[in-house]
Amino acid sequence: MKSFGTLSFGHYGPLGGGHQLSAQDSLLQAIDLAQGLDELGVNGIAFRVHHFARQQASPMPLLAAIAARTSRIEVGTGVIDMRYENPLYLAEEAAAVDLISDGRLALGVSRGSPETVVRGYEAFGYTGSEDPRGADIAREHFSLFLRAIEGEGLAERDPYSPFGGGTGLQRIEPHSPGLRSRIWWGAGNRDSAEWAGTVGVNLMSSTLLTEADGTPFDVLQAQQIDAFRGAWTAAGHPGEPRVSVSRSIFPITTAEEARYFGGGAGDDQIGVIDGIRSTFGKTYAAEPDVLVEQLRQDEALQSADSLMITIPSQLGVAFNLRLMESFATYIAPALGWEPTVATV
After folding, report:
1. pLDDT-based confidence at 142, cuts 50/70/90?
2. Sorting pLDDT into bands at 50, 70 and 90, what band is 343?
3. Which DSSP category does 332 fall into?
4. 42-101 residue pLDDT tens
5. Tell me: the pLDDT tens digits for 272-287?
6. Of 25, 200, 252, 324, which has the fewest beta carbons less than 10 angstroms from its beta carbon?
7. Which residues contact 307 (CB under 8 A, 6 or more apart)?
8. Bridge pairing between strands 13-16 and 19-21
9. 118 vs 78: CA distance, rounded Å
10. Which stretches of the chain are assigned E, i.e. beta strand?
């Protein structure tokens, strides 16, 4: 494990006991958390993107704000649902954030997960899908998005334009060199991972896999990672791709953490999502020395270079910073991690 960061849904709404977390609270706390993580030397902060829900839905303004307030930490998503995106506008936004951050964008995209509404992407104007889950729209949008960030000319220039004129095809602006190498595809099965390797983008392995044959989740995920790397090599892409996995990990170092998470550890779970029988990874919750041994036995975590830790954002900035400081101090170094700053 070379790097680790956080992954948040950015939930807001009622918290119980008469307390309320507003959308503004959620956004501002995310910026404060990113600054604290940057000071700790944590490598990344990412946000899930869901529409028609009290969660982060429009990540680019938030990522830009974080990029402007930090200096080392990667800013990203896990994942943007490409069914809902105008690929050229997303290319413009992604390039802008990448430039503001000086190349620290780690943009995770995919078909997306189930939403709270039926075919919500059609309400955004993206119709005509022949797939009940809109996967064809997502792949089509992603293909055009990649062409745009690569700098391909996509619109005929107007020779009579008062703003310069000319002939030939014009690329999207702004353009951020190297951005393509910082794009990740979120995959929930082996076929999707192999496709990402063939296309030549990094792999963001999901918190669930649409397989359920009794094989442990981490073993299934390690097999998925192997398939991705094999496809990357077979396609002839240069260099080594990056791979991230997500885990729910709660170091227990205080009585408060024991109250919240002491009974949270468990086994893999089998369930149905999008009508497909799937395997969900387990939660890790224990004292640091126990967690180190458990995580060393996690095959996919050992195979990946990046770990994304899902965090309970509703518990606030101070609580989550304490969790990540415990992980950075007592657990991550034993797994091979080094902070982005000299000391933690």
Report:
1. very high
2. very low
3. G
4. 999 999 999 999 998 999 999 999 999 999 999 999 999 999 999 999 999 999 999 999
5. 666 667 777 888 999 9
6. 25
7. 1, 3, 4, 5, 244, 245, 246, 247, 301
8. antiparallel
9. 21
10. 3-8, 13-16, 19-21, 44-47, 74-81, 105-110, 155-156, 169-170, 183-187, 202-205, 208-209, 243-251, 269-273, 276-280, 283-286, 306-310
Q: What is the pTM (predicted TM-score) of this model?
A: 0.93
Residues 6+ apart with CB under 8 A from 220: 209, 211, 279
| Among the listed residues 165, 237, 166, the one whose alpha carbon sits nearest the alpha carbon of residue 199 | 237
Query: How far apart (Å, rounded) are the C-alpha atoms in residues 171 and 149?
Result: 9
Structure tokens at 51: 């529409």
* Beta carbons of 81 and 55 less than 8 angstroms apart: no
Q: In which residue are the tokens 């960061």 written? A: 5
How many Å apart are CA 8 and CA 49, to the nearest integer?
9
What residues contact residue 105 under an 8 Å CB cut-off, 6+ apart? 63, 67, 74, 75, 76, 94, 97, 98, 179, 182
String of DSSP letters for 13-46:
EEEETTEEE-HHHHHHHHHHHHHHHHHHT--EEE
Closest CA to 205 of 97, 120, 119, 280: 280
Total residue length of the chain: 344
The predicted-structure confidence for 88-99, as pLDDT tens digits, reads as follows 999 999 999 999
Could you read off the pLDDT of 232-261 as tens digits, one per residue?
999 999 999 999 999 999 999 999 999 889
Tokens representing 277 are 């029988």
